[in-house]
Amino acid sequence: MAHCFLHVGFPKTGTTALQQAVFGARDAGRDNGLHVPDGIHNRHRWLQVVEARPKNANLARVLGVSDCEEQQRRAHAFIAEAGRVDASIDRVFLTEETLALADTRDLTTLYRLVADRFDGVTVLICFRRHMEYVRSTYNQRVKATNYTRPFEDYLDKFGSDLLGYSECLERFHTVFGKANVRCLTYDPDPWRGSNATILRLIGLPHVAGEEERGRNPSVSTLALETKRLFNTALCRSQTLHGGKDNPPDHKNMMKLIAALEASGALGGTTAPDPPPNPDLATTRHQAEWDRDWAYIESEAALQVA
Fold first, then answer.
1. Angle at 102 (CA atoms; ends 96, 106), nearest 5 degrees
2. Rg (the chain; Cα; Å)
3. What's the first-to-final CA gap in the chain, in angstroms?
4. Fewer CB within 10 Å: N-end or C-end of the chain?
5. Would the pLDDT of 84 be above 80?
6. pLDDT digit string, tens, across residues 87-118
7. What is the 3-state secondary structure of 166-224?
8. Alpha carbons 156 and 79: distance in angstroms, whole number
9. pLDDT digit string (tens) for 35-75?
10. Where are the beta strands (DSSP E) in 18-104?
11. Residue 163 near residue 292 (C-beta atoms within 8 A)
12. What's the pTM value of the predicted model, to 2 decimals?
């Protein structure tokens, strides 16, 4: 039986880049004793439905299965198949970043299934500073949807309970056992950062640096604020004409804004309000977040020592 490395997120910690790098090196990994099962968009989405409970409609579309019990059956079959490897394989890598947000019931079922199929499991979980996480989720929402609210409003909706990293880590300690959970703090350095550490742990050290190509492109504050203002106009237009949102439109819009910025055309743009400075944003939960982060850093430091 092989050992399972279970990568569970947290979202916004370079997960897309890591997954792209690992899936891109599947053949090399297999030659080195690492098996990466087939995924959906470089993720093992079946791990989200190990319990027969209703999930969001988008997940059902991605899986191509709407019935909860059938989703559960296929999820269990997926894990069983993942553990069915030949003697040349001693490690299996599973990845689904939303598992960091799963509740105890889902995690307990997942642990039972994995424990039955592998000779051991190591949970890999990475955390990002709270404010950086909120900024990143806000940026993605503005870039990819019609979201129109300024960053300060978005930040205000976050309560400390929505980003309780300590509670999240403790759930994994309780279900999987503290000795089986590897806690990391997010570091984007392609050679020495958190993803590079994970790649070394699973036996793909030569891929470190390659994952840089899979990172979501960064945008300037000015470009983001321009997109937000476009979103406002777009929402008004859709309201008037009864149109529906079209995700590719947002991607094309960001390309247009990037081209305008590169040409200097945005340099003279005067918005109703100046572009926000995320570094000046504050939250009433900052003290709680600081305590939460101190705990995560102490746990990560213990495992590095």
1. 100
2. 21
3. 29
4. C
5. yes
6. 999 999 999 999 999 999 999 999 999 999 99
7. HHHHHHHHHHHCHHHEEEEECCCCCCCCHHHHHHHHHCCHHHCCHHHHHCCCCCCHHHH
8. 39
9. 999 999 999 999 999 998 888 889 999 999 999 999 999 99
10. 34-35, 91-95
11. yes
12. 0.83
Distance CA 142, CA 149 (A): 9
The answer to whether 182 and 122 have CB atoms below 8 angstroms apart is: yes
Lowest mean pLDDT across 42-51, 128-137, 145-154: 145-154
Q: Which region, left, alpha or beta, applies to residue 275 given φ > 0 means left and ψ of -120 to 50 means alpha? A: beta
DSSP lists the bridge partners of residue 185 as: 127
- CA-nearest of 111, 166, 188, 194 to 299 is 166
